[in-house]
Amino acid sequence: MEKDDKKIEELVDKLMSVDRLEQPSIDFTTNVMSKVEAISNSKVTVYKPLIPKYVWYMVFCSLGALVAYVYLKDPVVNSEWLKKIEFSKLAFNPFENLSVNSSKTMMYSLVLLAIMVGVQVPLLKNYFNKKVLF
Fold this sequence. Notes:
Radius of gyration: 38 Å
Shape: elongated
Strand content: under 5%
Structural class: mainly alpha
Mean pLDDT: 80
Number of strands: 0
Largest sheet: none
Low-confidence stretches: none
């Protein structure tokens, strides 16, 4: 075994003595750095919101117009603004005529689903916040 190692070592020494070290070209560093700069100057993804600002402005203006219409739809002779608002009309219950009949099993399953979602969402949020995204 040692004879084989010595023969291999002699062969490697002989090959190394005959061969010379390769030299990079003169502009090697310039070529590499130009490629690095080309990669670093690549197009960056710019944050663009899913819903643009003008849509949010339109939604808020529409909501404001709707609220103003509900409050001010009845003409009032008195010019005081506070007297125009009738607080008795503000009693609004959308679930007044709604009745839902469900079994106890359905109720228990919905409660269990709510508990599980309430537990899993914070756990998954912490997991993805700690995970490094590259």
